[in-house]
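Shapes recur. One chain:

:::
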Amino acid sequence: MAETEDLRTRVRSLIPAKPGAQREFARAIGIDETKLSKSLKGTRRFSPHELVRIAEYAGVTVNWLLNGSDDAVTVTAVPAPAARSASAPGEGGRTERRRHILETAWELIATRGYHHVRIADIAKACGTSTATIHYHFPTREEVLNEALRRNVKLAFDRQVAELHAIDNAHERLVRLVELQLPADGLLRDEWSVWLQVWNESALNPAMRELYWDSYDRWFDTIAMTIRNGQEQGVFRKRDPREITTQLSALIDGLGIQVLTGKPGSSVDSMREHLRDFIDRNIVHGGQQEP
C-alpha cells in the first residue's frame, strides 16, 4: 500500500517550525535525519517501527497518521474512549514531562512489579520531585491505570502500522499473533504489565471496567480479522466470537507459561502451538474441519 502525501503532511505538522527541529525529531524517533528527510519527500517509506515511534513521541496514534482520525475504520478495533491515554499532542513541555514520567513508571512496573514501585521511586528515576509526579498522577492507582492505557496504545499503534497493508486475513491473523508474543524487550514488558493488571482486577472490582475496555479491543481485533477471513473464504464458517474466545484464551495461557518460566515453554513453542491451532481450527480446510 503506497504512502500518501496526507501521511507526510501529518508528520510534518508534528515537527516544530524552528531551526534544528527536524534533526531533533529524527533523533527522538531513532532514525538518521537524512532518512527522515527522504521519507518526508516521498522517496523513502516510513517503516512500521518508525510510525510507532512517531506516534509515541508526538502523542498521536498511527491511525491518525495513516487515516487522519483516531477513530477511523482500520484493520484493528479502535480503543474505547476510557482505554485511551489522557496525554494529547500540542501541550508543549507539560505533555513531554507527563510522557517521560509515564514511560519511566511503566518500565519500573514492568520490571519491578506494581507493589514494589513507589511514587518516590518514579520521582528518583525521573530526576524530579514526588510533587511533580503527583501533579500528573494524583494516586499510585492512577499510575497503574495509565500504564494499562499505554499498553493499549502501544498494541494499537503497532498493529495498525504492521497490519494495514496486509489484505489476506490469514496472513494478517498470523502476523497479529506474532506481534503479541512475549519476546524479550518491549513485548515482554507489556505482558508483565498485563499480568499485574489481571491480578489487581481480580482483587479490586473498581479496576475491572477499565480492564475490560482495554482487553475488549484485543478481543474484537481478533474477531474482526476472523470475520474478514470468512468473507474472503480463507476461514471456515464458525461463530467468530466463539473461536476468538478459544484463541485468546490459548494466547493468554501460553503467554503466562512463558513469563512464569514453565519448563519447556518458550516464545518459539508458543508460536508453534498458536499456528497449529489456527491451521486446525480456523483455516478453511484445516484438519479439524468436519
